[in-house]
Structure formats: structure tokens, C-alpha cells
Design brief:
Layout: H1 4-25, E1 29-36, E2 43-49, E3 53-59, E4 64-70, E5 79-85, E6 88-95, H2 97-100, E7 107-113, E8 116-121, E9 126-131
Parallel strand pairs: 1-7
Antiparallel strand pairs: 1-4, 2-3, 2-5, 5-6, 7-8, 8-9
The structure holds 2-acetamido-2-deoxy-beta-D-glucopyranose.
Length: 135
Amino acid sequence: MRTMKPCLLFLVLLICLCQTQISNSIFDKMRVHVINGLTKETLNVHCQSKDDDLGSHDVSVNEEYSWKFRLNFWDSTLFFCNLSWKGGHKSFDAYRSAITDECEESDCRWRATDDGIYLFIIKHKVYVQKYKWEP
Ligand SMILES: *[C@@H]1O[C@H](CO)[C@@H](O)[C@H](O)[C@H]1NC(C)=O
């Protein structure tokens, strides 16, 4: 029995190491940014997931609101946001796995402008319009 102990300890250590590896790679951290690129109005940002309500935030011109989260194993993480200002409002999915391809490795950048909401497409390094404001 005495010789079993170091072996067991080694096994436990191995499992711990493996889990750290996994959580550092598969469960990557992601940051979603919502930038106020409006000319002169404050932007209200209200984002939520199934489990978390991130609350309502007023963002000044050229400022941003951002949050960070870990992707879950199934990559089923979903955050939706409602952006609103004097010129309109729009509800959309700010993070879901399908968007990831277009985002940077660890950052999704949304930018609200007077004519709509843009996503920064890393492949082309440009902001592309994804949504228009609803009145
Ligand atoms: C988004 O916010 C606007 C302004 O507060 C509101 O009128 C609209 O109903 C909201 N939309 C959703 C889907 O929550």
C-alpha cells in the first residue's frame, strides 16, 4: 500500500495540470467591446446573457463599454445587447459562436455610429455595418 501513495499523488497532480491546460486553452477568455462612435450623443448599452444581466450603462462619445467572460465548453455562450440613443435603438447578439470567426481571437469590437452598428472584421481589418437603428 505504501508504494501506491506516490503514484496516486502523481495521478492527482497530472489531473490538476491537465485541467489547468484545458481551462487555459479551450475555455478562452473573450472580451466584447461596445464603442460609442456617435457624433455627439450618449449611447445606452444594456447587455445580458441567459444567466447574467450586465445592467444599463451610459457611454459617452468615443468611450467604450466592455466585459470579459470565459467561453463554456460547448461554446454556447450568448450575449445580447440593446443599444439605444436619441436616434433609435437596436437589439442584437453581441456574442455567439458564429460571430467569433469575424472577431479577433479574444476581442469582439462593436461600434455604434449615427447610421448603425458595425463589427470590426479582423480578416479585413475594417468595420462592417451589421445593423441599422430601429426608430
Ligand atoms: C431597447 O431600449 C429601448 C430604449 O430604452 C427600448 O425602447 C426598447 O424596447 C429596448 N428593446 C429591447 C428588446 O429591450
